[in-house]
Amino acid sequence: MPRHEYAKAPRRAVRALTLLSAVMLFLNCWVDIAAAHGSIVNPASRNYGCWLRWGNDHLNPNMQQEDPMCWQAWQDNPNAMWNWNGLYRNNVGGNHQGAVPDGQLCSGGLAESARYRSMDAVGPWKMTNIGSNFTAQLYDQASHGADYFRIYVTRQGYDAATQPLRWSNLELVRQTGRYAPSQNISIDVSAPGRSGRHVVFTIWQASHMDQAYYICSDVNFT
């Protein structure tokens, strides 16, 4: 091989490795997207709300002051926001309270996972203003449909800004039947007798397999 060809060989190897790294990064991102599913987008879930507000501005230092709960989630693991549609558990068998301990409802009992444990953090999460009668809207990217939804709302007197969320803090206000596969599902909910800060906790039991989503939305009853 001519001398100049030997000189080019390392550069070719570097370019090949760079291209391979780029391909692997793309494939990893594609796998995350392909495995993505959905969440409650209105009133926004904690992880979807962070993505909605900061997804295109995640390097803005103002997040720390303007949205401290999203900031702490971002510092803990950015994937809580980037993978806002993947907070689920497989093979729970309907035993939701057995699978999800008190204090870990907003991470779906995945507090040991670095990805979603920040969703359980207690503090002033951004709220969506709602009335006693409201509509919960699910965006189901993969169109899995639902065996059912169970929608809970915290009882009056619970302080979501200072107390971890427990099952005993919740009142079941809506249980639905099945929903056919669709990307957009709306559920009418009535939760009278509440005012101020609360948490709407949604269990979405998907239809395509035994897959349950656990979703916290912070709201302000006006």
What does it look like?
- Mean pLDDT is 87; it is low at 3-35.
- The protein is built from 6 helices and 9 strands, in the order H-E-H-H-H-H-E-H-E-E-E-E-E-E-E.
- The longest helix is centred in the first third of the chain and has 32 residues, at 3-34.
- The chain has helices at 3-34, 46-54, 63-66, 68-76, 79-82, 96-99; strands at residues 38-42, 88-90, 128-130, 133-140, 146-154, 170-175, 184-190, 196-206, 211-221.
- The radius of gyration is 21 Å and the shape is globular.
- It starts with a helix and ends with a strand.
- With 222 residues, it is of the alpha+beta class.
- Strands 2, 3, 5, 6, 8 and 9 form a 6-stranded mixed beta sheet that branches. Strands 1-4-7 form a 3-stranded antiparallel beta sheet, with no helix packed on it.
- A hairpin with a 4-residue loop joins strand 8 (196-206) and strand 9.
Keywords:
single chain, 222 residues, alpha+beta, six-stranded mixed sheet, three-stranded antiparallel sheet, 6 helices, globular, disordered N terminus
